[in-house]
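Progress report, Aim 2. The chain analyzed during this reporting quarter is listed below.
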Amino acid sequence: MSADVVATDRDNGVYQFQMDQPVPSYLIALAVGDIHFKAIDERSGVYGEAAWLDEATREFADVSKLIDAADELYGQFAWGRYDLLVLPSSFPFGGMEYPRIAFVTPTVLTGDRSLVSMVAHELAHAWSGNLVTNANWQHLWLNEGITSYVESRLMAKVYGQKRAEQELALNVEELKKTLASAPTGYNKLHNQWRGQDPEQAFNQVAYTKGMLFMRWLAAQAGIDEFDRYLQGYFQRHAFKSVDTNDFVADVQRYLIEPRQLSLKEDQLRQWLDGTDLPAFAVMPSPDTFSLIDGILTTWLTEQVPLSTLQTRQWTVQEWLYFLRRLPRQLSEVQLAELESNYGFSASRNAEIFTEWAVLVIPLRHPIIDEPLKKFLTTVGRVRYLEPLYRTLANTPQKREWMRKIYRDARRGYHPQAQLLLDKIAL
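Predicted structure tokens for the chain:
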């Protein structure tokens, strides 16, 4: 449970929990099942089915480094312990940030710690969201945008600025797509949600647009100064709820005025009420993936064999960028060369597999059929299922094949996943 265990009667299955700090109701959670535990260190460990534990403790071995980095930047961790519960494969989300324990998807268990930014994100919520909470879901960006900024700072501290910038660049790509396609209202940070579906608020606007707002403020004040400001913000509002107006007032009083920053009210309002990114947003460098662009050009235009290209040290973010930049109409020879050199169809990384499958499905190449069927029947995370089923539904030759798989797989999906996917796959 998202609290301290104070008494245990294992023989009768009776457990007593205690939470001394005030938390909003959405941060109360209880997990029931055949759950085991393995420690990572003295303040962190992994809960889950026994089969997950060894792999998960290796995957999350850096959690203490992330906590130390957050303590240094934003003040002492307020919750005592930070454990992680690996949920069954049917869990439809990436993670959920409860006090003392984060619930996480098993799709982050890649064997190479390449998706630990999700763990950094849930940890960052210990400050932004759990310690200082949005007053209601009109102000969701206060939870998710600030958290995404803190996540980026933690990733830079522990894994280097290059990786943090690469992850941001990919998220900004997704944000731009969201802003271009979102219905009116869903592209603002501060939204009234009158007559709208609040579930749709959990998109890249609250997360990445909110993060870019924080990044812009940090650029105006200086990164270190902004870290100090956020540490003070968390202390001033600890165990309280705030709304957008509270945040703006806090920025004016404790960031802009003491440092005599030349920020204008209308600039803040452009971030909060605008439907696009402000022209003065501080974006990732256009050279973030220049190496990948060069390699793609070499392969596609100069027909240099993939086996001669230097890709061994690529990060997952570089691979994702590579896959997203591949032509949508690859030849069978090109597909075979990609698969034989990189084995995308067998990738344990769900991000890479999904990008590859979305590329291959419209080409109707059988290379993806069996791996895709296995993935759809063993993974329940909506982030991957939605684009895969949507791509299959948009490929006429694959629709009946998709429906058969969905009818078999549906019972293993979470009801929230079923609600979304029924509209696509039935």
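The chain has a mean pLDDT of 94. The longest strand covers residues 4-9. These observations will guide the mutagenesis work planned for the next reporting period.
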